[in-house]
C-alpha cells in the first residue's frame, strides 16, 4: 500500500511506502550520529549501524504496519511511521509511532505523515490509537494534539534499551469520535482497559 499527501510547510508531496530491508542504510544516514533523536525512541538500538537498523526493521518494524516516509519529488527518505498492535488490549487498538530525520525537521513532514497514517488506520478498521512521547518532546505532543489525540496521563514504561523505567506521556485517539466532539467524548472501553494502573499514572 502506497499513500500520498502534502506537507503543509514545505509544500512538498510526501509518500508512504512499506518499509524494506534496504531502508537500513537510510536510517543510519539520518540517525547514526543523532544520539538525542534515537534516545527518544524506546526500541531503536544505540549506537545505530546497518545491522541494528535491519534488526529493528525485521522485528519491531515487521510486527505492525510500518512505512518509509519519502519526499515524493525525489524519493528522499525522510523518516519512518507505523501502526503496531497493542497485545495487551482488545483487537482494534494500535500504537502509533514515528520519527523524522533532523535534516528534515520543521518542514511539515511529521504532521503530513501522521495525517496519512490516520487514513491507513481507518482503512484497517482500527477503533483506537495510542502514542507515547517523552515529556520534553513538545513538537510531537503538538502534532498529536493537532490530530485529536488526547493526553490520558503519564506512566513509567519499561525500556530495556534505555536503562529501565522511563517516564512517558500517554496520548489516545478514538477513531470513531468526530473531531468536534472529541474533547468531551469518553474513551472507548478497550483503551480504558489498556491504560496503566493508577499507581503508574501521574
Automatic annotation (TrEMBL):
Protein keywords: Transferase
GO molecular function: acyltransferase activity, transferring groups other than amino-acyl groups
Record region (Disordered): 182-202
Domain N-acetyltransferase: 14-176
SUPFAM superfamilies named in the record: Acyl-CoA N-acyltransferases (Nat)
Family matches, as Gene3D superfamilies: 3.40.630.30
UniProt KW Transferase keyword: yes
Short name of any one Pfam family annotated for the protein: Acetyltransf_3
Coiled-coil stretches noted in the UniProt entry, renumbered to this chain: none
Domain of life of the organism encoding this protein: Bacteria
Protein name according to UniProt: Protein N-acetyltransferase, RimJ/RimL family
Organism: Paucidesulfovibrio gracilis DSM 16080
Organismal lineage: Bacteria, Pseudomonadati, Thermodesulfobacteriota, Desulfovibrionia, Desulfovibrionales
Amino acid at each position: 500500500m502506497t499513500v500520498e499527501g502534502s506537507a503543509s510547510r514545505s509544500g512538498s508531496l510526501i509518500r508512504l511506502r512499506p518499509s524494506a530491508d534496504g531502508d537500513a542504510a537510510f536510517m543510519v544516514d539520518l540517525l547514526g550520529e543523532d544520539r538525542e533523536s534515537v534516545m527518544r525512541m524506546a526500541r531503536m538500538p544505540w549506537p545505530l549501524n546497518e545491522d541494528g537498523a535491519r534488526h529493528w526493521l525485521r522485528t519491531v518494524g515487521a510486527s505492525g504496519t510500518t512505512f518509509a516516509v519519502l519526499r515524493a519529488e525525489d524519493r528522499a527518505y525522510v523518516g519512518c511511521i507505523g501502526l503496531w498492535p497493542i497485545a495487551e488490549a482488545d483487537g482494534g487498538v494500535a500504537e502509533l509511532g514515528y520519527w523524522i530525520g533532523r535534516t528534515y525537521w520543521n518542514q511539515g513532514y511529521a504532521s503530513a505523515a501522521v495525517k496519512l497514517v490516520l487514513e491507513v488506520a481507518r482503512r484497517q478498521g482500527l477503533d483506537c490509537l495510542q502514542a507515547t512521547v517523552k515529556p520534553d518532546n513538545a513538537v510531537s505532543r503538538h502534532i498529536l494534539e493537532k490530530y485529536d489525540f488526547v493526553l490520558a496521563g503519564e506512566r513509567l514504561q519499561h525500556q530495556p534499551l534505555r536503562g529501565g523505567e522511563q517516564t512517558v506521556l500517554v496520548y489516545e485517539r478514538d477513531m470513531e469520535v468526530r473531531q468536534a466532539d472529541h474533547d468531551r467524548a469518553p474513551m472507548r472501553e478497550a483503551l480504558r482497559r489498556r491504560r496503566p494502573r493508577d499507581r503508574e499514572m501521574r
